[in-house]
């Protein structure tokens, strides 16, 4: 079994989900009391948030890149950056290490393609929705991205930073998110990417009229396939 390196704390809520999912999937594959070999480096989310709001992506890349190097030195065989937004600097981080950084959008694109869809909505922070790095990856899979309108994008962004990242999950916010999903469905989206690792804590498949792609689970499953040398298309 290879060792998974996780850069977490962005936020701690979703990092706890990563830890749970990875260990559950490893145990399902290996049985007994097997669990994953992993190294978790949890950052202070407030520091990351302030750099993000200051548009200081170079500072974020320096911080996250140094952490990735430390995880590699500690024996990790791959890196998981446990947040969709932080994949804005994924290429910069990958350039600093020899081991692979498993990209969340690439794993998500593979899952969407396996589901036979070619048009999906993307929900996340405004950085994830608007900076283009996610769309760049999905375009390589032949997938069209549908975005909510400006007001809805701002609502999702604010809910992530002001509520979900603080472990606040309000029924009214859930209702608005489901309304947004309904709206993008009317725009032609065949499914919806839950492109913030906190959103799956509020929205599950049973809630949505469209197929949802839980990026936390998809990313964690990709790491388990890597760690156990399983086929990339093996359902978990």
Alpha-beta content class? alpha/beta
Total strands = 7
What's the SSE pattern?
Answer: EHEHHEHHEHHEHHEEH
Query: Shape from CA axes?
Result: globular
User: How far apart, in Å, are the first and last alpha carbons?
Assistant: 17 Å
Helix content: 40-55%
Please explain how this structure is put together.
- With 236 residues, the chain is an alpha/beta fold.
- It contains 10 helices and 7 strands.
- It has a 4-stranded parallel beta sheet, sandwiched between helices. A 3-stranded parallel beta sheet has the order 2-1-3, sandwiched between helices.
- Helix 5 packs across helix 10.
- It starts with a strand and ends in an 8-residue tail after the last helix.
Short description:
The protein is α/β, with parallel strands linked by helices. The chain has helices spanning 12-30, 45-53, 57-73, 90-94, 104-114, 126-130, 133-140, 150-162, 171-186, 215-228; strands at 4-8, 38-42, 78-81, 119-123, 144-146, 191-194, 212-214.
């Amino acid at each position: 079994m290879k060792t998974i390196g996780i850069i977490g704390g962005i936020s701690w809520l979703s990092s706890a989900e990563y830890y749970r999912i990875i260990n559950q999937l490893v145990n399902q594959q290996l049985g007994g009391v097997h669990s994953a070999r992993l190294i978790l480096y949890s950052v202070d989310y407030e520091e990351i948030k302030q750099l993000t709001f200051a548009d200081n992506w170079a500072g974020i890349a320096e911080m996250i890149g140094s952490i990735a190097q430390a995880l590699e030195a500690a024996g990790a065989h791959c890196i998981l950056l446990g947040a969709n937004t932080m994949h804005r600097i994924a290429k910069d981080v990958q350039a600093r290490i020899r081991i692979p950084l498993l990209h969340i959008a690439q794993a998500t694109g593979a899952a969407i393609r396996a589901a036979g869809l070619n048009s999906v909505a993307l929900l996340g922070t405004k950085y994830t929705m608007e900076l283009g790095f996610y769309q760049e990856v999905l375009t390589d899979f032949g997938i069209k991205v549908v975005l909510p309108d400006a007001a809805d994008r701002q609502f999702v962004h604010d809910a992530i930073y002001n509520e979900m990242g603080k472990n606040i999950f309000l029924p009214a916010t859930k209702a608005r998110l489901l309304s947004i999903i309904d709206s993008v469905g009317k725009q032609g989206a065949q499914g919806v990417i839950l492109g913030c690792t906190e959103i799956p804590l509020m929205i599950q498949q049973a809630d949505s009229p469209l197929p949802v792609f839980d990026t936390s689970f998809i990313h964690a499953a990709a790491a388990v396939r890597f760690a156990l040398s399983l086929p990339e298309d093996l359902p978990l």
